[in-house]
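User: Hi! I have a protein structure encoded as tokens and I'd like to know what sequence might fold into it. I'm fairly new to this, so please keep things simple.
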């Protein structure tokens, strides 16, 4: 069984390296190559944790070895043929192999670890897959509110997967701005100031705004989920503010902040549909 792990991890390590090298030579494909590079690394981390457990059924290991070999072969071909237009046609196949390989790694974790003791690498990979699946829908919803919000949100993820250096600082600024604009749009500070009889706008805190927004949500379950997320909104906003910190940021740590922010934006949009409709009625 140990040989399986060595081969899988080695294939993913070499695929990650090829995606990284290919990313350096290509322009328009930066974002997708960045996603592939990141996903191969996340799968690699989870397989290392699975190797330590060594409880994986052979059928899962065999399947994972096939997918990791296919992924490595595709990455090798892309790297060698990156200037050939045919390489563009390989992306759909490579993305499919990556997604299937990710699902296999996730399945392996469920088999190998107690459900209450899954490793951090498992949740990192799952968060990556969730973000990819919901990005288009979130962007579309933001566009119905304001085109600039949708553009800032998309630019945050594009920057993460394309910037070669200090790649999380710009995405953190952009994601924080999306959250700020959403909260201010649905809970204007002047309204909160009057509601709480505050002297200045600077006395308005995000907790005031989030409570105001939740009061407008009629669905009880959505309202509870939104209120429960109040601390998360404040925490993630403060974490995103680390982008102001001088010096190099911890890439893996700040990527986690971005995934959390993405989940909160999704919750916000799902919870505030009623409030958005109310605002639209008031503007008519």
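Assistant: Happy to help. Inverse folding works backwards from shape to sequence: for each of the 284 positions I chose a residue that suits the local structure. Here it is:
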């Amino acid at each position: 069984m140990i040989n399986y792990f060595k081969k899988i991890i080695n294939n993913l390590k070499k695929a990650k390296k090829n995606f990284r090298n290919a990313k350096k030579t290509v322009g328009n494909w930066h974002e997708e190559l960045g996603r592939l590079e990141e996903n191969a690394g996340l799968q690699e981390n989870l397989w290392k944790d699975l190797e330590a457990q060594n409880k994986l059924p052979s059928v899962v290991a065999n399947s994972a070895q096939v997918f990791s070999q296919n992924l490595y072969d595709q990455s090798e071909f892309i790297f060698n043929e990156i200037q050939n237009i045919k390489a563009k046609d390989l992306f759909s196949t490579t993305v499919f192999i990556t997604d299937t390989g990710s699902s296999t790694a996730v399945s392996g974790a469920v088999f190998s670890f107690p459900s209450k003791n899954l490793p951090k690498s498992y949740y990192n990979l799952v968060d990556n897959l969730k973000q990819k699946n919901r990005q288009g829908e979130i962007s579309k919803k933001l566009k119905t509110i304001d085109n600039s919000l949708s553009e800032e949100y998309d630019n945050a993820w594009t920057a993460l997967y394309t910037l070669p250096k200090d790649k999380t600082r710009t995405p953190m600024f952009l994601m924080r701005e999306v959250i700020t604009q959403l909260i201010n749009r649905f809970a204007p500070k002047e309204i909160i100031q009057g509601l709480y009889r505050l002297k200045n706008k600077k006395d308005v805190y995000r907790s005031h705004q989030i409570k105001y927004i939740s009061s407008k949500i009629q669905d009880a379950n959505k309202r509870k989920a939104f209120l429960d997320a109040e601390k998360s909104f404040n925490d993630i906003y403060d974490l995103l503010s680390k982008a102001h910190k001088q010096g190099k940021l911890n890439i893996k740590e700040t990527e986690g902040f971005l995934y959390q922010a993405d989940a909160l934006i999704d919750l916000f949009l799902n919870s505030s549909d009623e409030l958005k409709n109310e605002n639209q009625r008031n503007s008519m």
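A useful reference point when you look it over: Residues 2-118 form one domain. Feel free to ask if any position seems puzzling.
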